[in-house]
Design brief:
Layout: H1 2-33, E1 39-43, E2 47-54, H2 66-86, H3 92-115, E3 118-126, E4 129-130, H4 136-154, H5 156-198
Antiparallel strand pairs: 1-2, 2-3, 3-4
C-alpha cells in the first residue's frame, strides 16, 4: 500500500515539475525575443504579450520586497511539500491543487533567486482596462487558490463533518426534549398523587 501511495505521489510531483518547466521556458523565450515594454498583439484590443520585470508579487503587488517574497515562496513550497509527503492518502484533487500552487510559487521563486525580479509577459485588455501583466506561475497560483475554495465547499470530507455536526446537534436537541418531557411527566405525576391524597 505504501509503495502504491509513493508511486501516486511521485506521479503528481511530475505535474508540478512540468508546470515549472513550462513557466521557465516561456519566460526564457520572452526574454530572448522581446525587449522591455515591447508589445506583440495576439488578439487586437484584448490579448497581447509584452516583457515587464516585476520586483513584487503576483500581478505587480508588493513591489520592491523581493527578498521577503523570495523567503515566503521558499517556506510555502517546503511547507506544502512536507504536508503532502505526510498526507499521501489525501484525495487526488487536493494533491493536484496543492502541487499546482507549489509550481506557481516555485516558478516565481526561481526568478527572484536568480534575477532578483520576476518576468511577466501575459497581458489582457478587459473593457478598455489594461489588466496587470502576469505569467504562467501567476496563473498556477490563482487557479490553485480558486481550486482550494471550491474544494473547501464540495469536499465529501467537509460535508460528512457538517452532517455529523448536524446529527450530533439533532441528537442533543432530541435528548434535551426527552429530558424536558420526562420532567413534565414527573411533575404531572406528583401533582396527580397530591390531589389523590387530598381527596
Amino acid at each position: 500500500m505504501k509503495e502504491k501511495l509513493k508511486k501516486i505521489f511521485l506521479t503528481y510531483q511530475l505535474l508540478a515539475i512540468l508546470l515549472i518547466v513550462l513557466d521557465q521556458l516561456s519566460k526564457i523565450l520572452v526574454r530572448h525575443f522581446l525587449d522591455v515594454d515591447e508589445v506583440i498583439t495576439i488578439i487586437p484590443h484584448f490579448f497581447y504579450f509584452t516583457l515587464v520585470y516585476n520586483t513584487g508579487a503576483a500581478f505587480s503587488g508588493f513591489s520592491n520586497l523581493t527578498w521577503i517574497l523570495t523567503l515566503i515562496s521558499l517556506i510555502s513550497c517546503v511547507g506544502l511539500e512536507i504536508y503532502l509527503f505526510k498526507n499521501q492518502q489525501k484525495k487526488g484533487w487536493l494533491k493536484a491543487i496543492l502541487l499546482v500552487l507549489i509550481a506557481g510559487a516555485f516558478g516565481n521563486f526561481i526568478d527572484r533567486l536568480i534575477f532578483k525580479k520576476v518576468t511577466d509577459f501575459i497581458g489582457f485588455i478587459i473593457f478598455g482596462y489594461h489588466f496587470a501583466i502576469f505569467n504562467v506561475a501567476d496563473i498556477c497560483v490563482t487557479l490553485s487558490c480558486i481550486g482550494l475554495l471550491i474544494y473547501a465547499f464540495v469536499s465529501p470530507e467537509n460535508h460528512s463533518k457538517k452532517e455529523k455536526k448536524l446529527l450530533n446537534d439533532s441528537n442533543n436537541a432530541t435528548s434535551f426534549d426527552a429530558s424536558l418531557d420526562g420532567q413534565e411527566k414527573n411533575a404531572a405525576s406528583e401533582n396527580h398523587e397530591g390531589e389523590h391524597h387530598e381527596s
